[in-house]
């Protein structure tokens, strides 16, 4: 059978992710399985259950989903072994041409399972790394070793930022011929939100009609470091009592953060409203965006904020450095330097012309390579090219 006949066959792509939380990796994965060209591709989704986006996944037409209860985020040898066996069963049933994994746990187990049963094409997208400099050295070395082994099983490794790609090369996880840069996309047409009255939106949020608003978006977990966001709010509020702070998201740190709000006297000044579906509108009504993340892939929320015309003050980590040009479209701050972050934030809020000019440059720096539909088309092209080269996959008769 000639490669040209591949066009007559649908390429079955199984996407595997640890859990469908309301995060960038999860939202992009759902958008991909929803938007793949059904005349050429047959998507399947595998995930651990219990995520806030589970029902959204179930609502996608023509999408087969496997929820694996043992696929959980924390390290758990017994559950991980059960999840590996379950993934092997799913792959044997589905007979995929491509297994495309996301997130650390699903990325390891999914690639091992795919390799064990001989899936022709194994891809993994790094939305960030499971290892980082703040871990115990023994744990970091162990995770890096596991990641190195999984990388060897991969046909291609996809990176959402150049910073992550460079980190992978530096640690020997990949080389240029095996690496692909596909940006984490957002629906650019939704930013900035149209027809929004900022004062009305601020009133709706309970922050005050005329109050300057500083916003952040992310899971309330150690990676996103929301505790520094509260410390920043404390420092800034001591200098200017008109400023309000909003952190959109939820997670395991909520109780501790609410305690910090009370301890710092920020109740009614700094808000944690949980996850919201009106993020484009909130960004349009805000004045400055902040990210205190300790490590990142390519933060989707930062792309959305910049496209909305917001200047950003961010810790200088990983993929954030792909987006921010310090002093031009935002400010980059060394992680942990909350005092300098507070100074830059106050400067922007006290100088309207600088803030607006920096916000305009931020919007201009988000080009079409960050569009979510372009992201899907790049993935389709990659699947197609790899399948045509590998006669075991796309031209297999089912």
Describe what you observe in this structure:
The protein has two domains: 3-185 and 371-389, 3-Layer(aba) Sandwich (Rossmann fold), CATH 3.40.50; 188-367, Glycogen Phosphorylase B (Rossmann fold, 3-Layer(aba) Sandwich), CATH 3.40.50.2000. The chain has 398 residues and is of the alpha/beta class. The chain is globular, with a radius of gyration of 22 Å. The chain is 42% helix and 17% strand.
Fill in the keyword field for this structure.
7-stranded parallel sheet; 6-stranded parallel sheet; 398 residues; disordered N terminus; globular; 15 helices; alpha/beta; Rossmann fold; disordered C terminus
Short summary of the structure?
The protein is α/β, with parallel strands linked by helices and about 400 residues long. It has 15 helices and 13 strands.
Give the topology, please:
Layout (H helix, E strand, L loop, with lengths): L10 E9 L4 H12 L5 E8 L5 H5 L5 E4 L9 H18 L3 E5 L1 H13 L4 E6 L10 H16 L3 E4 L2 H9 L8 E3 L16 H8 L7 E5 L8 H14 L4 E5 L5 H10 L6 E5 L4 H7 L2 E4 L8 H8 L4 E4 L4 H4 L6 E4 L4 H13 L1 H13 L7 H18 L9
Helix pairs in contact: 1-15, 3-4, 7-10, 8-13
